[in-house]
Amino acid sequence: MRDDVALQAIVDSAETYSPNPLQGEPPLRIINLPSWYGRPVPERRWMVRDWMPWGYVTALYGDGGAGKSLLAQQLMTACVIGQNWLGLETTACSAIGLFCEDDEGELLRRQDCINRAVGVDFRDLRRLHIIPRVGDDNVLMTFNRDGRGELTALWHTFVDEARRRGARLAVIDTAADTFGGDEIRRSEVRQFIASCLGRLAREIDGAVLLLAHPSLSGIASGSGSGGSTAWSNSVRSRLYLERPAAEEGENPDNDARILTTKKANYAATGAEIRLRWQDGMFVPVGMPTGGFVEAIDQVNRDRTAEEAFLACLDAAHAAGRYASATANSPCYAPKMFLAMDARRGFNKRQLQRAMEGLFSTGRIRVEPVKTGHRNTVQAIAKVAKQ
């Protein structure tokens, strides 16, 4: 209620100015700044705090098969039942989604997995409205010869349905299905984001999540972007869902994902959540909640990794080999230990963290060691307990 009062105060305090009303020019709304003296400025509203702002379009990029649609359906469910999404605070509201790549059966199977994971059933989802549109004409905005965007009948139908059902979150899956222009023409892209999807957000007084595919260069660079730079520049927030690169000496983890904020106009960029596909949905892995139990778990994982590192160091010494702490050395310990069973499944990054922890606590050190060729090298050695 307080937000509504503050927004109405903005309307009431604004001055209008029309330079030439006789020619039909639209009036300009100018904020009456002196009228705000001593009054509280309205707080920013979020659909997902710090990740998805209210009143704007957020883009979620991800390669085909990465799981964008599943993640969006999880977000819709979280908002409808008033729960967090991947550990992030959401606003409880009705949600509607236009899904252009999946049929009814797939959407139902996906929702059933989500329901079982969060402890609800289909009867609890009266405010969740999913529209399967695979194989249909799903363009929301077309463009004439002058490059001017025109909203389609489907856009008006979708907006009417969203408002009728009181939806505040709208998911559009995907940009490729709903954008009727040239993806590298900046003017057309900006119209689609601002005058089509941005207008949709304003019409429902909520937020829009647009799902999109990155370009090959966007995947290669790790930026997750695609098409014209106008796509990224026009949205207020851009998220990227990707598969993490395999650690050296490791096979790819097909169930692992990383969700990152690549752009955030109203919050910090670079935040990431590590995810794992489990029982038909994504669950966050090792999120820093600050809880006592989780802190103890992290300590235990670090201790186990350190013991694995020391076991590998013993195995190397027993085989007459030395381990180096220098990253560009062919005997760099975290890399060399990947071939040993004693590492207990820890990857290179985890072994690096273990090595740093052992150095910091004085359990290992670097000292001169003679090799079989009577050369002296700087190698890692265990410190004897006193």
Q: How much helix is in the residues?
A: 25-40%
- The shape is elongated
Taking the sheet with the most strands, its summary is:
9 strands, mixed
| pLDDT averaged over residues | 87
Number of strands: 17
Q: Structural class of the helices, strands and pairings? A: alpha/beta
Contiguous low-pLDDT stretches (5 residues minimum) are 288-294
Main sheet strand line-up:
7-6-10-11-5-12-13-14-15
CATH names the topology of the largest domain as Rossmann fold
Radius of gyration: 27 Å
The oligomeric state of the chains shown is: single chain
> In angstroms, what separates the terminal alpha carbons?
66 Å
How would you sum up this structure, described in words?
- The protein is an alpha/beta fold and 386 residues long.
- It folds into three domains: 2-36, no CATH class; 46-284, P-loop containing nucleotide triphosphate hydrolases (Rossmann fold, 3-Layer(aba) Sandwich); 292-382, no CATH class.
- The chain is built from eleven helices and 17 strands.
- The protein has helices at 2-13, 68-81, 104-118, 153-164, 175-178, 186-203, 216-221, 230-234, 292-318, 333-336, 348-360, and strands at 14-17, 28-31, 46-48, 52-53, 57-62, 94-99, 128-132, 141-143, 149-151, 167-173, 207-212, 237-242, 256-264, 272-278, 281-284, 364-370, 376-382.
- The protein has a nine-stranded mixed sheet with strand order 7-6-10-11-5-12-13-14-15, sandwiched between helices. Strands 1-2 form a two-stranded antiparallel ribbon. Strands 3-4 form a two-stranded antiparallel ribbon.
- A hairpin with a 3-residue loop joins β3 and β4 (52-53).
- α2 (68-81) crosses α3 and α9 (292-318) crosses α11.
- The longest helix has 27 residues, at 292-318.
- The chain is elongated.
- The termini are far apart.
- Residues 288-294 have low confidence and may be disordered.
